[in-house]
Amino acid sequence: MTWTATALAFISAICGVATLIFDKRKDTLEETLKKTRPELNVSIKTGQNNQNLYVVIEPINEVPFEYNIKIVTRENIMVSGIMLDWGKIYPDKKRSVVLHPAGINLTKVADNYIELRFDYRSVYAAELHDTSLTGKLVKSYKLSEDKKYCIPLE
Predict the structure, then answer these.
(1) pLDDT given at position 129
(2) Cβ contact 78:53 at 8 Å
(3) d(Cα 109, Cα 44) in Å, to the nearest integer?
(4) All structural domains of the chain with their residue ranges
(5) Is the sign of the CA dihedral 54, 60, 66, 69 positive or negative?
(6) Residue 29's Cα: distance from chain center in Å?
(7) How far is CA 151 from the centre of its chain?
(8) Does residue 46 contact residue 149 with C-beta atoms inside 8 Å?
(9) Is the confidence at residue 1, as pLDDT, over 70?
(10) Residues 6+ apart with CB under 8 A from 132
(11) Does 38-152 carry CATH code 2.60.40?
(12) 58 pairs with which residues across the strands?
């Protein structure tokens, strides 16, 4: 009976130490994630089913972030709607791509030229007061003559 009790106490102690180690590791990973800048790709593409234009957001790492989209044409004329609030994305392995309707007013587009301006920031940027966790992507496109497709200009 004493051996059994001793063995169970030993196993319990090992499990307790392992739990502490795993909790510490989890906290370290969460802190590292908070201090990591979001990495992502964005582009404007045509939907497969409906021929509408979408801003395609592809997170590369798992840092949650907020975003704001503006689409302009020549002379900084806004041709998309204005986002009243920042959108939020919490990346996970199940959903690797987010589609945001571009909402382009094609009648305002000059010379079939549009420019995507995508601002983003880690959801932790304000908490940490760290501007290195923010970014801006700017991509230029030429619309096809039928205004259904975007051709990158780079």
Answers:
(1) 87
(2) no
(3) 15
(4) 1-34, 38-152
(5) negative
(6) 19
(7) 23
(8) yes
(9) no
(10) 37
(11) yes
(12) 41
Angular region, 43: left φ>0, alpha ψ -120 to 50, beta rest: beta
- Three-state SS for the chain is CHHHHHHHHHHHHHHHHHHHHHHHHHHHHHHHHHCCCCCEEEEEEECCCCCCEEEEEEECCCCCEEEEEEEEEHHHEECCCCCCCCEEECCCCCCCCEEEECCCCHHHCCCCEEEEEEEEEECCHHHHCCHHHEEEEEEEEEECCCCCCEEECC
- Which one is predicted more confidently, 21 or 132? 132
Structure tokens given for 133: 């966790």
Look up the pTM and report it. 0.78
Mean pLDDT along residues 132-143: 95
Round the average pLDDT of the chain to a whole number and report it: 86
Q: Which two tokens stand for residue 92?
A: 């996970």
